[in-house]
Design goal:
heterodimer; A: alpha+beta; Nonspecific Lipid-transfer Protein, Chain A; 6 helices; 5 strands; 50% helix; B: alpha/beta; 7-stranded mixed beta sheet; 3-stranded antiparallel beta sheet; 9 helices
């Protein structure tokens, strides 16, 4: 039975995530082909702390993110948003280990395949931005996105570490 | 997927917007629509999409992978928006064939591009997407923007696109698609069926043609359905990208 939410925010989150993920995937020429290996699989993600469950399906090299799905999931991943985001960092990915703060139930290979696909992503920001904005502005915008993404990852990792340290201090 | 809803012999029918018409009649009916709108097509596109169609088209060409020296076929190219963008990407060493089944639209396109000084690497061809007058494996890429939904036999057109591509060549389709978010869908339906035909009446004095345009969008295959049709036509690596919440989608597939 699909979860019932009191606000449209979970639906908006699902749509925003789907849009963002697929835009990045389509900028990497190899990524849709890699995603094809996941066709027919169903991934359920429980976002702890937010009370939102998302379902990911894969078809035609496209990721669909929904609030409900038919059938039983092949894999269930549970974690806080910060812990789940940390999985995209190669040096921080400690899949399935007790310290990772991410729980995986079911077929772990689906989670690993996804993690590998996202780790290998090399979106070509420059091409489309240059086409839209011209050579100089397009290159600068692409560089800005690269630096911004790096800064965001750093910021989120630091925030996650600070939160973890704070919670440890409170417990001791 | 067959475009005809009733596929048996001479009685075969298909959709023309929300009307059912004989298969043999659709091409002529679509031609009448575009004969009527050709003169104000660009103005109406700007009004209908508040100029967003220009961004969609620029993004479509920007992520196409089309590069210098390539030979590209633009189908249902009408007034030349895509051909203009592609001609810059292929450069002097490449070429674009701007084709359309409608002579009025093609003439508007030729005039526009020549007025902008875009000559030299653009050719013009009156062509039916279902039966292309080109050799096998002639093009590096085939594009079609907001034209596939007006083709009577879309499966035949997809097969022709595949045929004229070189091995490794790419087909790119920009078209209205299915909006899945309920909130956006309500807004979109209200705009398409309430405001758009009235705009058509006010600006182009042609409410019926713009009602057809809105209806034809609703009858067009959705994202996964069109992807499956491309696979049936022989394309590989088929995928798509939604723009603006699925109001439009870019489908692409390669010739093996």
């Amino acid at each position: 039975m699909p979860a019932e939410y009191l606000t449209p925010l979970p639906g908006m989150l699902a749509l925003a995530l789907e849009t963002a993920v697929n835009n990045v995937i389509q900028l990497d020429r190899q990524a849709p082909a890699r995603l094809r290996k996941l066709e027919g699989r169903l991934l359920k993600v429980d976002l702890e702390g937010l009370g939102i469950t998302l379902f990911f399906t894969f078809r035609h090299g496209v990721v669909r993110v929904r609030l409900d799905a038919d059938g039983d999931p092949d894999t269930v991943i549970s974690g806080t948003p910060l812990a789940l985001f940390a999985m995209t960092e190669p040096e921080d990915a400690e899949w399935g280990l007790p310290e990772s703060k991410v729980q995986i139930n079911g077929d772990a290979s689906l989670a690993r395949d996804l993690e590998r696909i996202f780790r290998k992503l090399e979106p070509d920001w420059e091409g489309p931005l240059i086409g839209l904005l011209g050579d100089t502005a397009g290159y600068q915008a692409a560089e800005g996105i690269r630096q911004g993404a790096k800064a965001a990852r750093e910021g989120i990792r630091n925030a996650g570490q600070a939160l973890s340290d704070f919670l440890k201090d409170r417990q001791s | 997927m067959a475009q005809a809803d009733n596929t048996s012999g001479d009685g075969a029918t298909t959709h023309f917007g929300y009307r059912e018409v004989k298969v043999g009649e659709k091409t002529g009916l679509v031609r009448q629509v575009f004969d009527s709108v050709a003169g104000k097509y660009d103005l109406m596109n700007d009004l209908m999409s508040l100029g967003v169609h220009r961004l969609w088209k620029r993004y479509f060409v920007a992520i196409s992978g089309i590069g210098p020296g390539q030979r590209v076929l633009d189908l249902a190219g009408g007034t030349g928006d895509i051909a203009a963008l592609v001609s810059r990407q292929v450069g002097a060493g490449g070429s674009v064939v701007l084709s359309d089944i409608n002579p009025a639209m093609l003439e508007v396109g030729r005039q526009r591009l020549e007025d902008r000084g875009l000559v030299g690497n653009i050719e013009y061809c009156l062509a039916n997407a279902e039966k292309l007058p080109f050799a096998d494996a002639e093009f590096d890429a085939v594009t079609i923007a907001f034209g596939l939904r007006n083709v009577t036999d879309q499966a035949a057109a997809l097969k022709e696109m595949q045929r004229v591509l070189k091995p490794g060549g790419r087909a790119l389709i920009l078209e209205f698609s299915k909006v899945e978010s309920d909130g956006l869908k309500k807004l979109y339906d209200g705009y398409s069926f309430g405001i758009l035909p009235k705009l058509g009446k006010l600006v182009a004095n042609d409410e019926d043609s713009y009602r057809y345009l809105a209806e034809s969008i609703r009858k067009h295959p959705g994202q996964d359905e069109l992807a499956d049709m491309m696979i049936d036509a022989g394309f590989v690596n088929v995928t798509y990208l939604n723009l603006t919440g699925g109001i439009v989608a870019i489908h692409r597939g390669d010739r093996a």
